[in-house]
């Protein structure tokens, strides 16, 4: 058992099992974003953004005596993209390329303190395509595809260098569509989500999760102008999958 108490200025963490230990960590780090947008034509735009972020040691609402002196991981994201409105601006198409550098990634052990060290570095390069809007009257569509190549550039474990970062699929795709029927204002919708194969450890060995597909659907009925009832169905194919993996595959959240 354990007890956590997030504080505005940091976190205190007490374990409830003997031997009781107390860990405290305070991180203050600025994060910011810069963006530039240009419109070569009225129905199209291009943009570039640069942003920073950081992951403190207590990001999973837990601290230990082996992480209470571990500095945050820092991230820098670069993105270049474009957006165009077509079909009389009824359909918006987007595209982007990006890369994310995670510096000071947690890896290895500090030889002096014995705490987790920040000796790693990862880089994620990717592209994303999307479309949102009406393809015809009363028929709306939302589609998105993402490609990710997340690699470990530096690590305290030599076998991890050059491998794929855990829990990151190479391919992911989703499409969702709704149709407003001419009958009593009823709306129906359906969608598919595809997530590609993932390694759940940075060494790319051991626990893995194969690609999976999820099917969802809905139907909605307007009872009055102000009240609508809706029935949603999720994972109609009853697919077993790993939603999220933690701690290099030590445990995971099933879907």
Q: Tally the beta strands.
A: 17
Radius of gyration over alpha carbons?
A: 23 Å
Multimerization status: single chain
Helix content: under 10%
Largest sheet: 10 strands, antiparallel
Strand content: over 45%
Total of DSSP H or I helical runs spanning 4+ residues:
0
General shape:
globular
Q: Compute the average pLDDT.
A: 87
Physical arrangement of strands within the biggest beta sheet: 4-5-6-7-8-9-10-11-14-15
The secondary structure category is mainly beta
- Provide the succession of SSEs: EEEEEEEEEEEEEEEEE
Cα distance spanning the termini:
25 Å
Return residue spans where pLDDT drops below 50 for at least 5 consecutive residues: 1-8
What does this structure look like?
- This protein is mostly beta strands and 255 residues long.
- Mean pLDDT is 87; it is low at 1-8.
- The radius of gyration is 23 Å and the shape is globular.
- The two termini are 25 Å apart.
- Helix content is 0%, strand content 58%.
- It has strands at residues 2-7, 10-15, 22-25, 33-41, 44-55, 73-86, 91-105, 120-136, 139-154, 171-180, 187-195, 198-199, 208-209, 212-222, 228-233, 242-246, 251-254.
């Amino acid at each position: 058992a354990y007890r956590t108490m997030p504080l505005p200025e940091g976190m205190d963490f007490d374990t409830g099992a003997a031997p009781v230990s107390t860990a405290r960590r305070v991180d203050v780090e600025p994060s910011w974003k810069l963006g530039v947008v240009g419109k070569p034509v009225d129905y199209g735009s291009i943009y570039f953004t640069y942003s920073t972020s950081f992951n403190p040691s207590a990001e999973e609402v837990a601290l230990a005596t082996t992480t209470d002196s571990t500095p945050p991981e820092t991230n820098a994201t670069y993105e270049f993209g474009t957006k165009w409105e077509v079909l009389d601006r009824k359909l918006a198409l987007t595209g982007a390329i990006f890369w994310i550098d995670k510096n000071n990634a947690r890896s290895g052990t500090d030889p002096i303190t014995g705490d987790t060290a920040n000796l790693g570095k990862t880089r994620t390069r990717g592209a994303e395509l999307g479309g949102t809007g009406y393809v015809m009257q009363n028929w709306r569509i939302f589609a998105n595809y993402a490609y990710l190549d997340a690699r470990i550039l530096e690590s305290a474990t030599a076998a991890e260098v050059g491998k794929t970062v855990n829990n990151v699929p190479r391919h992911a795709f989703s499409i969702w569509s709704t149709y407003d029927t001419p009958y009593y204002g009823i709306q129906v919708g359906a969608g598919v989500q595809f997530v590609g194969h993932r390694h759940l450890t940075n060494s790319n060995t051991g626990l893995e999760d194969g690609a999976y597909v999820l099917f969802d659907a809905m139907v909605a009925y307007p009872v009055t102008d102000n009240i609508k009832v809706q029935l949603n169905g999720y994972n109609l194919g009853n697919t077993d999958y790993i939603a999220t993996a933690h701690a290099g595959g030590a445990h995971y959240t099933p879907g």
